[in-house]
Amino acid sequence: MNILITVQEVREKVQEWKRAGLRVGLVPTMGYLHEGHASLIKEACSQNDRVIVSDFVNPIQFGPGEDLDAYPRDIEHDRKTAQDAGADCIFHPDVDEMYGSDFSSFVDMTGITENLCGKRRPGHFRGVCTVVSKLFNIVTPDMAYFGEKDAQQLAVIRQMVQDLNFAVQIIGCPIIREPDGLAKSSRNAYLNMEERQAATVLHAALSGAEDAMRAGERQISVLTGMIRNTIESRPLARVDYIEVVDSKSMQPVSEMNADVLIAIAVYVGKIRLIDNFTWKIQAGRI
Ligand code: PAF
């Protein structure tokens, strides 16, 4: 499978596909592909004639003191994973290709980026929106695929596409989990054995809240209290946030009378992990 390095190479490849009337899907990633990414690629392949996976650790979405330098990278593993999942090529630019020395334009967003991860990681979504806009302009995909694990990111991208009139359809794909419930993430690679075991607390805490909701509990303080107690029962785990927000606007809700996202971020040792579930008022839970 081809690994394309330059914007020019991608443009030429996509133009060739489009001239042939083919439908193009894009799966944006930061590499170190796992089964979660593979599920996005497979979904993209089922809905498009050609699929391109971008594999780029985007420096401008990392804050000072975050894990940019340590972020795991393995392009050969990514090539195999993307190929096995059915992708046609990988776009793997270097930082200079994406951000020349005179780079000075950014895509910023208000409102929806101000809570949850946006609040804890200032500038993060500015970096995400900027790189995803660039990828949309470079690849001009018909459809683009994002995981629901990063629920705020998915909501932000949908809002950006609507606001800036990108001609791309955004598809959200379900969270893929390990057998013990831990959501798949490239950052799981950082966990030592003890932390890996403790990391199951994220899913356990959310599942407990979900069971309580099924049993009729609707008081937000009770639900967040339950989640906090479960997380704090693990000495290695520390709550970063537990939020109940409107699933579209990402604004905190005081009552469960619309579709809500229950989202958590938890430090396990030094590693920050996120997880969530959506509760649909009308149709029961998805
Ligand atoms: O979700 C990710 O891996 C990244 O935030 C994305 C969307 C590829 C942008 O760098």
Question: Notable features of this structure?
Answer:
about 290 residues; alpha/beta; Rossmann fold; Pantoate--beta-alanine Ligase, Chain: A,domain 2; six-stranded parallel beta sheet; four-stranded antiparallel beta sheet; 10 helices; 10 strands; about 40% helix; globular; binds pantoate
Structural class: alpha/beta
Kindly report how far apart the N and C termini lie. 36 Å
CATH architecture verdict of the largest domain? 3-Layer(aba) Sandwich
Strand order of the largest sheet: 1-4-3-2-5-6
The portion of residues forming beta strands comes to 15-25%
Mean pLDDT: 96
Low-confidence stretches: none
Radius of gyration: 19 Å
Number of domains: 2
From the spread of the alpha carbons, the general shape counts as globular
The CATH homologous superfamily name of the largest domain equals HUPs
Largest sheet: 6 strands, parallel
**H/E element sequence:** EHEHEHEHHHEHEHHHEEEE
Bound molecules: pantoate
CATH class of the largest domain: Alpha Beta
How many beta-strand runs?
10
Fold-level CATH name of the largest domain = Rossmann fold
Helix content: 25-40%
Q: Care to describe what's here?
A:
- With 286 residues, this protein is α/β, with parallel strands linked by helices.
- It folds into 2 domains: 2-173, HUPs (Rossmann fold, 3-Layer(aba) Sandwich), CATH 3.40.50.620; 186-279, Pantoate--beta-alanine Ligase, Chain: A,domain 2, CATH 3.30.1300.
- 38% of the residues lie in helices and 21% in strands.
- It contains 10 helices and 10 strands.
- A 6-stranded parallel sheet has the order 1-4-3-2-5-6, with helices on both faces.
- Helix 6 packs across helix 7 (151-164).
- It is globular.
- The model has no long low-confidence stretch (mean pLDDT 96).
- Bound molecules: pantoate.
- Pantoate binds next to strand 2 and helix 6.
